[in-house]
Amino acid sequence: MAAYSSGMDPDIAYTVRVVVIGDPSVGKSSVVRRLATGMFSENHIATIGAEFHNVVLEVPIPPENAPVAVRVQLWDTAGQERYRSVAPAYYRGAPAVIVMYNVCAKSSFTAVASWLSEAAAHLGHDGAVFALMGNKIDLADASGVGLREVSRDDGEALAAAHGMLFAETSAKTGAGVADAYVAVAAAVLADEDARDRCTAQRHGARASGISIPRRREKAWIRAPGGPACGW
Ligand SMILES: Nc1nc2c(ncn2[C@@H]2O[C@H](COP(=O)(O)OP(=O)(O)O)[C@@H](O)[C@H]2O)c(=O)[nH]1
Ligand SMILES: [Mg+2]
């Protein structure tokens, strides 16, 4: 992972908005912050108000897989998921949705189906890329104290049943995080129509009625191995 300092912004070709949903405490904010800042905090920092981050990723665009700089806009549910009342405007028009669960909490995995139907009901189009992300694998696989409640096979099977990409991640170690987001962006941009929309949508957050404060946009991440990692 190489930082791209300000003033050296790569020529950004596309902006891809990624909506991140799932049960409370599965690690949505932690994964988003890990990707955007490279950091992790054990202390629970409640997501209050809206939380948005921009990160620039180097994404190989099919079919040639030439790497292109893509601004990924991360939309983290601002705590509304505790009340299962995520604002419909949050979903509208999103080209990609990541549903997260905690591999150490079966109930969060069981809840994936209802998060999926909520997203589908509010997206307003049927061309979105969906990804399933099982987080906290550092706890799951810790030697001696493995707390895993959802196997990788079960995660993969659920993802396959719903036509979703799949990844396991750890916000704590960073494992899988950048690769997962690169793969989601690549899947969105594999589609020519989506590429057109994502080019036009550079400031597209406005179309949803929600304005995004421009925050961090400094990381320039090269995912080792590109998008072919476990999806
Ligand atoms: N060990 C470990 N803890 C995590 C991981 N991701 C999140 N956490 C912790 O889980 C708690 C909830 O995380 P948070 O990101 O607030 O979850 P959210 O409610 O889904 O946004 C926090 O205490 C985090 O530090 C992870 O990958 N590994
Ligand atoms: Mg949160």
From TrEMBL:
It holds the Pfam family Ras. It comes from the Eukaryota. One of its GO terms (molecular function) is GTPase activity. InterPro entries: P-loop_NTPase (IPR027417), Rab (IPR050227), Small_GTP-bd (IPR005225), Small_GTPase (IPR001806). Keywords: GTP-binding, Nucleotide-binding. The keyword GTP-binding applies. This is Uncharacterized protein. It comes from Thecamonas trahens ATCC 50062.
